[in-house]
Amino acid sequence: MVADCTPTVSVVIPAYNRAHTLGRALDSVLAQTFGDFELIVVDDASTDDTVRVAEATGDPRVRVLRHETNRRAAAARNTGIRAARGKYVAFLDSDDEWLPEKLHRQVAFLEGAAPDMLACCTAFRMVDGPHDFLKIPRLLSLREMYFGCDLGPGTTLMVRRDVFDGVGVNDESLYRYEDWDWSLRYARRYRMGCVAEPLAIVHRGPRPPAAPTAGAAERLLEVHAPVLAGLGRVFTRRVCATRWVELAEYFYRERNFSEGTRFLLRGILIWPLVRPGLYVLVLDAAFDIPLQRLLWRVLNAARGRAA
What we know:
- This protein is 48% helix and 18% strand.
- The chain is α/β, with parallel strands linked by helices.
- Helix 11 runs antiparallel to helix 12 (257-270).
């Protein structure tokens, strides 16, 4: 591919102090069977060798953009979106990786998709230390998406670039959940496609701190309050309760039992019938027992027998 040609896909990798994992992400993109892409690495003011790793590829399809100050993931993705020239934009977190057929499968899917399906995610494998879990997305309604975002949009999302003109870019005021927020805004207008093949590997890193995550959750619910109100009072209570119980787990993992219990009670009081799996996570965090991993192993074993 000639360097000044317009590519079919613009791959955006935001990176902050990821010199130890960025090479793996870059290699997985450069090994794609679909080669008509540009690769935009947005360095978010790293203090390690992230830029050097990105520039060392020697591939003319790679561009490196730099922030002078750290502005977090939403801003880094937005810088990549604004610089993108491709028909499609695909995102990859700098500590994750793709399988070789990932771009090929998604481009083919979107080229043949319905007119209201302008973005898609893929199945992926979640690696959490020695544990490896398969996550297969499915078509979700807007209502379903308010209960959680298991699509892995930071690493599996591909979207037509012109969609950002109407939906907008990532909300840079969000400490977390910026990809979820964008997916919700997208889902108000269009359908999200899902490629059921596991075409990405997501490496679970350290959990973000609980306090700013709680602030981001409050902000997310505030921004979406008008839409939630239109979906009904009971629905809004269920969505809020899900967030509060999830935050209880975050605080319990930091051994902040007072805040964890406050959020747990807050959730239970407005709607106690959240997903049972959330209570499993809360027990896991509060008593430091591996309930979640045990259940994942049981579910994966059951899927294997069914297959």
